[in-house]
User: What shape does this take?
Amino acid sequence: MADRVPPIDRVLESIDAAETVALAQQLIRIPSITGREGTAISTTVAEWLTAHGIPAEVQEIAPGRLNVVGRIEGAAPGPRLLLNGHLDTKPFDGMVIDPTGAVIRDGRLWGRGACDMKSAIAAVLVAARAVRESGELRRGTLLVGFEVGEEGGGWTFPQLIGGPGACDAMICAEPTNLEVHLGARGGMPIVVTTFGLATHTGMASQGINAIQKMARVIESLYALPVLAEEEPAWGRSQLNCEQIEGGGKVTASVPDRCELKVDIRLNPGLPPERLGPALEEMFASLRATDPDLKVEWAPRVAPWRATQIPLDAPLLAAIESAAARVVGRPPTRAGFPGGCSAMLLLNDGKPAVIFGPGHIQQAHTVDEWIAVEQIPLAARVYAAAALTYLS
Assistant: This one.
């Protein structure tokens, strides 16, 4: 009877939910704050791989900072598929739960990194072991690769894929709530400055208030027509006025300068070279209707375009069929709202998708958690996708 069970189904049945969740708890209990991760998290992962028959390599980035790669060779030559995640987390500041408690309560696993993204790392590890033990990897190489520094401590993913994690395709395990994310948004962070005329508050009507002028700019930014455009799977591009500073040089004075930092995240249909002229047109219109408005804007960093996997890519078909098989329904397509490792591969012309357990809204929060049931489901999807893609 066992021979009548399709090979992929046998692999999926071998993945134990309780073991996968317990491994996630073990990883959460190891502090690995970005930039000062320490070696414990990396050596734990490397030792787990070795103990389960998967050759592991540690890549030293700096003292106390290690990337880890595991490798499973298929029966015949073929593409190298990387299952990727980052080992570091945000700091513990302000958390209202035990950040390393890894407590399970109300169907949720709580702790720093529970959502972003130690549960996903546990799922990747268990999936890789199931693939190795099955002997069903027909061709190519299955890699599991984990880097440090993604959360702001000096991202080391380029070193990973430039070294032992070199690959031809990748599934990034960032939290997507088990949706298939086709790529990552681009970005165009800008700084806007308005200039006014300082006068005493008692003569405020004789001055030009730079903060008041900025208020008009903010309203116009949020009403920018190109930001209202909807794209399938992606929705709208996003704008966030994230920091503002003005006035305060002296008391009782009309502010003569105001600076606004704006973060704009771009869908594939709104590249930077299209947004730039739209912003120029908006500012020109504001100046035309207000001769007292003096405003400048400039990019804060070099803008970047959104990335998206080709919709006919075999990797996309593999992850979607795997998710449908495991979850029981076709997965939702979407775009990843932030930056992630998939961007680098897609920019190099290599296929990459984002799929992982947990919802991005829970990442970085003071009470970070993940739905427990999603962790073993993700492990089964990774295993099925790898076997399908490398079949």
Remarks:
- The chain has two domains: 2-184+306-389, 186-299.
- Residues 5 and 11 are 10 Å apart (CA to CA).
- The chain has ten helices and 19 strands.
- The two ends are 23 Å apart (CA to CA).
